[in-house]
């Protein structure tokens, strides 16, 4: 990770010809290169992004990037996945090593404004920081953790929330911070730490990789709000729109009952103008967005399904993660997913 | 005509000037590029962030630190952690390396072969791999509730080593002063005896009176009522409370660096000793000196001239290699700096800071070693 930092600094020193801030600068570069460079959590994050033995990535965050590639190129395979750690992700994005981060990055004010100058156009997952402990410790609340040793990833909101939480409750703790998530999990699994903290979904993912997952319990408390969003550099309105409306298309499709199985049939037969506009049967949504094809949303849904299908495939109750929809359900079913209308 | 300018001393100056111009121009080009790129991304160069509250927790620190402290304080904590592992590491690597180097030259073939095997394996595998290995070994220690207890008050577990701590109070200062007085007494005794030996040729053992002073003075001070208070570590809740703690990350890093660097030091020591001419051994034996004293008084002083310069590089390497601490989670300078970059976005500033610090550390080490080298160098008369 040290090297990517230095690479970032070196790139900042040496990259040429990007001194003028044109609108659409990043999108132009992506189109010129003919691939989208997508930063994902490395070495792996079960459910969200995992490489197979061939180096091909799959997972929820991975499909979000592929969906963006469909909007830009009309091709889900024009994506190059770059594994980044929590420490190396922002220099990687700032320096242009990646175009987008789809790696469970929390949307915060400082990341959006003065510090990094990023843009986080749409929330893809609503999460909150949780705490995992071995069952045998008989801990039921985070407030009982005075004096505990805590495994946490550096450079995250999690790390800052943890310090805030213990400060606010006047508790002491010893942090063990390791950037590599696998190494950190091994430290917790071996007993180096009493507590493992991360966003709830990521923690559930890590639990599946422990030696005996059933021996560990995730406490019901949530230490924070963690709205996870796709992150890009500031200054490219067109790319911002593409990221936002790609995400919205997934959510709108679920709300309208469009799935990978019925999308073609609905596109052919539906008389509902809302559906027809989303699927590119009428209107010029694709063109206004700058998408490669007018029916970009139809292609995304045909390839990956709607938001709910993606969720169930990688994170849902039938997967090792076993997550409930909860906050990540459509607003009409009591969740927080509410996309602006495509019109 | 003008070709004559390109000869003689003028040519040298011309080349120097051209090089200087090229260097300055490259530097300016790099800086203007960085500035333009930062401006394009809306980043502002500056060190104001150093005074902002860092918010990041750090596991071990030699100075008081809480997440409410500033980035300046956090980076200082990281620097001190780097210095701690580097200084202790250099000392231990030297001791282990010299021992291994001597063992490599031993008359015992088994010892020679074992040392040779150690050196070849350690020198030819990547350090990062070794660090991860040592970290994994540390994590195999018993859990904190089944901690090994080899001595009263000493606990060894996955959480590292816990030892009793001495409370900082007047009794401790009196105790330490007595200890220092004992050491100085021993040193004075040694000096007197050496002068005596030079004068009369008679050698007398100094160990017994020396030890008596070193241990007797503190004993007297304790008898006088200045008994230092000991804080014993106790298992309370999740962890041991009280006492001094050495973390497994620190141990793994120290062990990895020492074992790795010692292999290189051993080869330097071996080559240094072998560079001393055989005639020196023979002459020393002819004088009737015993083996240990031949090494200490005749061979090593001459070998040091060959050993010191490459040793400097090993010390520099060890210090810089300590930045691999990020892999196993020891909060060294680079680890804290990486997190600071992440939280502030001031990549160029933070990298400038830690590069400057490493440069200063390296130059200071080199200066110290050069001074020592000049002391042991052959004085031509």
Q: CATH H-level name of the largest domain in chain B... which superfamily? A: MetI-like
Kindly report the greatest chain-chain contact and the residue count on each side.
A-B, 60 and 53 residues
Count of DSSP-assigned helices of chain B: 11
**Overall pLDDT of chain B:** 88
Helix content, binned percent of chain B = 55-70%
Summarize the main sheet of chain B.
Answer: 4 strands, antiparallel
Descriptive account of the structure:
The complex is a heterodimer of chains A (343) and B (381). Chain A contains 14 helices and 13 strands. Chain A is α/β, with parallel strands linked by helices and 343 residues long. The radius of gyration of chain A is 21 Å and the shape is globular. Residues 15-22 of chain A have low confidence and may be disordered. Helices cover 66% and strands 7% of the residues of chain B. Chain B has a four-stranded antiparallel β-sheet. A two-stranded antiparallel ribbon of chain B has the order 4-5. A two-stranded antiparallel sheet of chain B has the order 6-7. The chains are: A alpha/beta (343), B alpha+beta (381). At the A-B interface, helix 1, helix 4, strand 9, helix 6 and strand 10 of A face helix 1, helix 4, helix 10 and helix 11 of B.
């Amino acid at each position: 990770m040290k090297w990517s930092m230095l690479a970032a600094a070196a790139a900042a020193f040496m990259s040429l010809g990007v001194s003028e801030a044109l609108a659409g600068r990043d999108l132009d570069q992506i189109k010129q290169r003919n691939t989208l460079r997508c930063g994902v959590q490395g070495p792996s994050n079960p459910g969200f992004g995992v490489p197979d033995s061939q180096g091909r990535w799959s997972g929820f965050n991975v499909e979000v990037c592929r969906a963006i590639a469909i909007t830009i190129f009309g091709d889900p395979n024009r994506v190059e996945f770059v594994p980044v750690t929590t420490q190396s992700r922002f220099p990687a994005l700032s320096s242009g090593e990646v175009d987008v981060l789809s790696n469970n990055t929390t949307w915060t004010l400082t990341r959006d404004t003065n510090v990094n100058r990023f843009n986080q156009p749409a929330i893809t997952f609503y999460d909150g920081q949780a705490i995992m402990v071995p069952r045998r410790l008989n801990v039921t609340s985070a407030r009982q953790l005075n004096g505990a040793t805590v495994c946490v990833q550096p450079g995250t909101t999690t790390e800052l929330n943890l310090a805030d939480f213990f400060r606010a409750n006047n508790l002491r703790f010893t942090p063990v911070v390791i950037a590599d998530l696998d190494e950190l999990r091994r430290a917790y699994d071996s007993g180096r730490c009493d507590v493992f903290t991360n966003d709830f979904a990521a923690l559930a993912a890590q639990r599946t990789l422990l030696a005996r997952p059933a021996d560990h319990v995730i406490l019901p408390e949530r230490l924070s709000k963690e709205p996870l969003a796709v992150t890009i550099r500031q200054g490219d309105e067109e790319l911002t729109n593409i990221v936002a409306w790609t995400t919205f298309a997934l959510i709108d499709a679920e709300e309208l009952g469009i799935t990978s199985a019925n999308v073609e049939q609905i596109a052919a037969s539906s008389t509902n103008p809302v559906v027809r506009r989303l699927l590119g049967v009428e209107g010029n949504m694709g063109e206004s967005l700058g998408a490669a094809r007018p029916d970009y949303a139809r292609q995304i849904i045909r390839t990956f399904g709607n938001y709910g299908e993606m969720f169930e495939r990688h994170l849902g109750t039938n997967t090792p993660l076993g997550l409930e929809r909860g906050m990540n359900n459509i607003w009409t079913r009591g969740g927080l997913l509410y996309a602006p209308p495509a019109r | 005509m003008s070709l004559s300018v390109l000869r003689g001393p003028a040519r040298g100056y011309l080349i120097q000037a051209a090089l200087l111009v090229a260097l300055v121009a490259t530097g300016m080009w790099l800086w203007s590029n960085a500035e333009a790129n930062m401006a394009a991304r809306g980043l502002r160069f500056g060190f104001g962030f150093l005074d902002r509250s860092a918010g990041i927790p750090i596991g071990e620190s030699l100075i008081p630190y809480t997440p409410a402290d500033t980035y300046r304080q956090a980076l200082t904590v990281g620097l001190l952690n780097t210095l701690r592992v580097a200084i202790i590491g250099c000392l231990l690597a030297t001791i282990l390396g010299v021992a291994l180097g001597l063992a490599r030259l031993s008359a015992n073939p088994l010892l020679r072969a074992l040392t040779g095997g150690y050196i070849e394996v350690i020198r030819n595998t990547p350090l990062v791999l070794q660090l991860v290995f040592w970290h994994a070994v540390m994590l195999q220690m018993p859990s904190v509730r089944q901690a090994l207890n080899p001595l009263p008050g000493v606990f060894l577990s996955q959480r590292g080593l816990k030892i009793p701590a001495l409370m900082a109070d007047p009794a401790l200062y009196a105790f330490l002063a007595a200890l220092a007085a004992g050491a100085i007494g021993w040193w004075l005794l040694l000096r007197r005896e050496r002068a005596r030996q030079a004068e009369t040729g008679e050698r007398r053992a100094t160990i017994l009176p020396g030890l008596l002073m070193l241990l007797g003075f503190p004993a007297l001070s304790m008898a006088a009522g200045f008994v230092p208070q000991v804080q014993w570590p106790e298992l309370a809740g999740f962890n041991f409370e009280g006492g001094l703690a050495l973390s497994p990350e620190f141990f793994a890093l120290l062990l990895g660096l020492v074992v790795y660097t010692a292999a290189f030091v051993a080869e330097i020591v071996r080559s240094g000793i072998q560079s001393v001419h055989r005639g020196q051994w023979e002459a020393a034996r002819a004088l009737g000196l015993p083996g240990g004293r031949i090494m200490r008084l005749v061979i090593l002083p001459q070998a040091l001239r060959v050993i010191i310069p490459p040793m400097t590089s090993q010390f520099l390497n060890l210090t810089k290699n300590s930045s691999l601490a990020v892999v196993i989670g020891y909060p060294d300078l680079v680890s804290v700096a990486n997190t600071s970059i992440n939280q502030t976005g001031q990549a160029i500033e933070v990298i400038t800071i830690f590069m400057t610090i490493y440069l200063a550390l390296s130059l200071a080490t080199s200066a110290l070693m050069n001074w020592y080298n000049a002391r042991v160098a052959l004085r031509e008369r």
